[in-house]
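Quick start: what a row looks like.
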Amino acid sequence: MNVYSFAAIRGVQAGRAYYVAMVPLRTVERLFRFDEEELPPELRAQRELNKARVPAIARYLATNAGEYVLSSLAATVDGGMRFEPVDGHRSVGTLIVDMTATIVINDGQHRRAGIIEALRERPHLGDETIAVTLFPDAGLARSQQMFVDLNQHGVKPSRSLRLFYDARDDAARLTRAVVDAIPLFRNLTDLTRTNLTSGSRKLFAFSNLHTATATLIDESGRRCHVIGRKAPESRTAPVSVSGCHASPCGHRLVATDP
C-alpha cells in the first residue's frame, strides 16, 4: 500500500494520542485538504478561506525566504495511520499515513494557501518543512469542537507591540530612535498598548508615534531607510526629527529624497 512517512513525535492530550510531524512545504498542497467553501457551516470544521489574506502571507514568505517563521498547522486524519517508534524511544519515530486517508486542515488554512502561492515564486522553499499537529479523526462534531478550542484563547498582540518589535519596518525603527533619544517620549510612551487606559501615566502610544513618523516621512516626499549599523550609543544620542535623522541603539536611519 502507498503511504506517506514523516518524522514525528507522539504525544497525549485528554487521553488521546496525537502526533507532531515535520512536513515538506512542497507536499502541503496535495497532502492537506481544505473543506470546500460552498459547504454550509454545519458541515465544515473551520472558517471560510479569506482569499484577501493569502497574498500577504505569500509575500511575507517570498520576501523573507531567509528568515521567515511559520507556526504549525493542525489537521485531522480520516484513514489508516500508525506510529513506529525508534528503538529506545516510545515517543519519537515515524508516522505512516495511508495515501488514501483524508487529511483536513482544522487550523492554518490561510498559511496553507500562502505556502502554495509562495512556492510558485520561491520553489526552492519546497524542501523546507513546517510542523503539523495531526489528530486521528473522531467525526465532524469533534473536529468542529477542536476548531473552537484551538481559536478561542488566541489573542492578537497590540499594534504598538507588533510595531515596536518589527525590525523590518524602517519607520518603526526610526520611531524607536526618536522615543529612545527624546526624554519626553522615552518617559511617556507606552510601548505595548495601542489604546491608553484612563489611569495610564503615559501620554503617547507607540503606534500613534509610528503613524505620525510615517506621515511626516511620506508628506515630506522622503524615504526612511537603513544605511548602516554601528555600535550601541548613549541614550542621549542626537536625533534630528526635522531632518528625520537618527542614530540609536546600533542603527543609523535617514530620510532621503526619492
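That is the whole record. The helical segments are 28-31, 54-63, 109-121, 140-151, 159-165, 170-181, 183-188, 206-219. Residues 83 and 95 are 5 Å apart (CA to CA).
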